[in-house]
Amino acid sequence: MFQLYRPLSFLVCLLLTITVSQAQQTGANFFESGITKSKSGDFMGALQAFSMAIGANPENAPSYYNRGLAKANLKDHRGAILDYDRAIELNGKDALAYLSRGVSKSKQDDHRAALMDFSRAIELAPDDAQAYYYRGVSRSRLEQYRGALQDFSKTIELDPNNVQTLYARGITKQKLDDYAGSLADFSKVIELNPKRAQAYAGRGASLVQLKQYQKAAEDLNKAIELAPEDGESFYNRGFAKSKLEDYKSAMNDYDRAIALSGTNYRAFYGRGFCRGKLGDQRGAIQDFSTAIELDNANVETKVVYNGKISRPILDGLRNAVQQKNIIDALSTERSEAYFNRAISKSKTNDVKGATADLNKAIELNPTYSEAYFTRGLIRSQQGDQKGAILDCNSALQLDPKYAEVYYVRGIIRHSLGDENGGCLDLSKSGELGYTPSYKAISDYCN
């Protein structure tokens, strides 16, 4: 018998082929195991399986990608990024790898790098709605709101009932001061998911900005019913109630907002306003002081009566003026809090403190016409009629239709002997709708 002999090199090649085949098969088994464990939520087990798959076949991009996903689900975003890097190195056309890496980078607050990954994912898969959504989120974080709006709109074009994106677009429209436009997005979210408290809260906040206070309160009632620990909804509802002059109920909302977040300086401001309206001036001053001081980088300055209107008459006419004192949103520099604290101080006869607060309000907001007018009233009360006229002039430069200012300037001018100028001011005040001017004209201008 003849025995068949094969060259040694052939046997080595055969052995290597079998070994590689077995390794690939083993790698495939580990990979499938990783997929199964990921689907069941066992991300630690999945991570181990994908690591075994990589050990068996270190050039398999999907193993790195899926291990990255497992790490991301375990909140290990830095480790996930390294795996996505390797997956992309092995397969630079994998849109999902760019998308997932972008998500992990955004979790690390590296939004500029994330944005680049999302843009690349969109280049590779231009119909992937989620890529536009995530890019929109990163743009929002970078305050690129118009770009974010475009991305969210594209997502909705591709996926019209995407609740998450509809809500995000509504918030972005608010950032762009398009409160009316945001209503449709929040309403669509509510239609698709009537239990989503955030949508009621968002719509309520927009309605406040649109001065539809009763409707806003109704939406915020629902938001609070669904999410009773949402301090911002309590604050917004309190603000709406303040605008509706329901001060007692508003104060309860501000109390709750403060209990939920002791750093909500706007809630202290709102509560101070309500306390002032309800006669608690000392409590109002305390709240306004807190509103000013809390987390604020800005916290740290004789006349002859010749007309028919004598000093006592002037005081009586002026003190009867009803000031424009309605609650306004608290700006970042807190000038409104200084202004309202001044009013409360003036009602407790703390003239010096009131004047100092009005000076600060004007310093922080030089276009604050009400603050000039109020300071003018106080100056007039203290006998500084020329200073009062200067403040009235400033208020009118800022708000030429401020009827009460014309009235006060008119009676002061008249008291100083400028009967013609005073009566012209009173006439303008009446023209603008301040009816007490006509009584003064009748008494002193004829």
Give me the secondary-structure topology.
Layout: H1 8-39, H2 43-56, H3 61-73, H4 77-90, H5 95-107, H6 111-124, H7 129-141, H8 145-158, H9 163-175, H10 179-192, H11 197-209, H12 213-226, H13 231-243, H14 247-260, H15 265-277, H16 281-293, H17 311-319, H18 335-347, H19 351-364, H20 369-381, H21 385-398, H22 403-415, H23 419-431, H24 436-444
Helix pairs in contact: 1-2, 1-3, 2-3, 3-4, 4-5, 5-6, 6-7, 7-8, 8-9, 9-10, 9-11, 10-11, 11-12, 11-13, 12-13, 13-14, 13-15, 14-15, 15-16, 15-18, 16-18, 17-22, 18-19, 19-20, 20-21, 21-22, 22-23, 23-24
Gist?
The longest helix has 32 residues, at 8-39.
Could you describe the 3D structure shown?
By secondary structure, this protein is mainly alpha-helical. Among the domains are: 101 residues, Serine Threonine Protein Phosphatase 5, Tetratricopeptide repeat (Alpha Horseshoe); 134 residues, Tetratricopeptide repeat domain (Serine Threonine Protein Phosphatase 5, Tetratricopeptide repeat), CATH 1.25.40. The protein contains 24 helices and no strands. The longest helix is centred in the N-terminal third of the chain and has 32 residues. The protein is elongated. The N terminus is likely disordered.
Q: What order do the helices and strands follow?
A: HHHHHHHHHHHHHHHHHHHHHHHH
Kindly report the average pLDDT value.
Answer: 90
What is the CATH topology of the domain at 311-444? Serine Threonine Protein Phosphatase 5, Tetratricopeptide repeat
- Our measurement of the CA-to-CA distance between the termini, rounded to an integer number of angstroms, reads 146 Å
Radius of gyration: 34 Å
How many runs of DSSP E, i.e. beta strands?
Answer: 0
Strand content: under 5%
Coarse morphology: elongated
Going by CATH, what is the homologous superfamily of the domain at 311-444?
Answer: Tetratricopeptide repeat domain
Strand count, sense and barrel status of the largest sheet are:
none
Class by alpha and beta content = mainly alpha
Amount of helix: over 70%
Tally of individual helices: 24
Q: CATH top level of the domain at 311-444?
A: Mainly Alpha
CATH architecture of the domain at 311-444: Alpha Horseshoe
Low-confidence stretches: 1-6, 14-20
